[in-house]
Amino acid sequence: MNLKSGWTQIGLVLAALLVGLCQASLAQVGDAVLEEPGLQPFPTPLTSSAATLFQNVRVFDGKSAALSAPSNVLVRGNTIERISASPITVDTNANVRVIAASGRVLMPGLIDAHWHAFMAAIPLQLLITSPPSYLHLLAAREAEATLMRGFTTVRDCGGPVFGLKRAIDEGVTIGPRIYPSGAFISQTSGHGDFRFFFELPRRLGGPLSHSEIEGVAAIADSPDEVRLRAREQLRQGASQIKLMGGGGVSSQYNPIESVQYTEPEIRAAVEAADNWGTYVTIHAYTPPAIQQAVAAGVKCIEHGHLIDEPTAKLLADKGVWWSLQPLTYDADVFARMSPVSQKKALQVWAGTENAYKLAKKYNIKTAFGTDILFDPDAASRQGAYLAKMVRWYTPAEALKMATADNGQLMALSGFINPYPGKLGVVEEGALADLLVVDGNPLEDIKLVEDPGKNFVVIMKDGTIYKDTLPK
Ligand SMILES: [Zn+2]
What we know:
Blueprint: H1 3-17, E1 51-59, E2 71-76, E3 79-84, E4 96-100, E5 105-108, E6 110-115, H2 124-129, H3 132-148, E7 151-156, H4 162-169, E8 177-180, E9 184-186, H5 210-213, E10 217-219, H6 223-236, E11 241-244, H7 263-275, E12 280-284, H8 287-295, E13 300-303, H9 309-318, E14 321-324, H10 331-335, H11 339-349, H12 352-361, E15 366-368, H13 376-380, H14 382-387, H15 395-410, E16 434-437, H16 451-454, E17 455-460, E18 463-467
Parallel strand pairs: 1-4, 1-5, 6-7, 7-8, 9-10, 11-12, 12-13, 13-14, 14-15
Antiparallel strand pairs: 1-2, 2-3, 5-16, 16-17, 17-18
Bound molecules: zinc ion.
Zinc ion binds near residues 21, 116 and 371.
């Protein structure tokens, strides 16, 4: 059947299931055309050296607006041990890999603060028609591609990624560090409720819906249910809790203006997270939704594009993080949306300029993220989302946001931080997630758009996954 009649037949039932998350396209159809990760089919880490010495690099440390003088950087184990302008001598008999960088730039690995490792690059039709076991393998493949784009850490804002994270951490498969939220928690008819109509009404205490069983969403109404679902995510290893606190673009049955959850419900999740040393982050676009979340103790707002000035000031006063995405009109993305989502997308995109203006004006702690969903093409352009930030920031400011600043947001997971140690900076004692760039991204941020060509070395946790420097 062709796309149009298929859409008509499956209609709203499909739309209901299609996980109207944030910026998802609803009618995308296709096979598993994942981007080429730019690697051999079964890559393995390139080095098992005890140490790596980067010789003659100019360092962007994640914070400064300028590069360092020519320096040498020694990595031992998974940590940056020493940075020095004078030569670092190493025992040539020791197991040390020397990388002669010839004045190229060394910078921290990139961090995406709003990623969906399970769903970023899997087209929607595939997602709802394929066996979960197959989808998890595709997600693993995409995780490898993500690392090869220079994103060494992602904060996953919803989806079943506990297994993927574990496999990556154990070296079973290749990918970035993942800060998982597990299932996002949504009220009935909220932004995370993508049940079919035939699954309603739910008998209280009745069986879970498909998306709940798969760990994508958790439907919870009342403080007690929210508390239970939050604790279940923590039990599985969530490093933070994700709540849906207001309307979303791609979900079909809640207006953007809708405020979701009540303060006591959000507070229940905040208490559960707080007891575990971590925090709640919440999907919210509008001032009422943001204000309610802040009042309940939420420490990070996802999106917030329709914020107003008093609410921006509130975020600044309370030191709440703002995880904002550079969403502007994108004809390709727009064309793939349902009519309902198109209308909502225009509403949200119209707020982007103002949002960044207010984020800067009030010096709010702002995180960089992409929130790409169901779109292998967009996923392959993850770095272009960062390059787009120069519309509002200098390249140095944008790169700082995607490295040192995002690293601070990761640390908000407190004593359950799965990767304790400093992320997003090049300094002694920090975790060794590093990129060698062929060119100066502080002058030309567009270099991050083509990581295959311009990121000549990619290191995560002290292990080199790519090195194309001439030998
Ligand atoms: Zn999202």
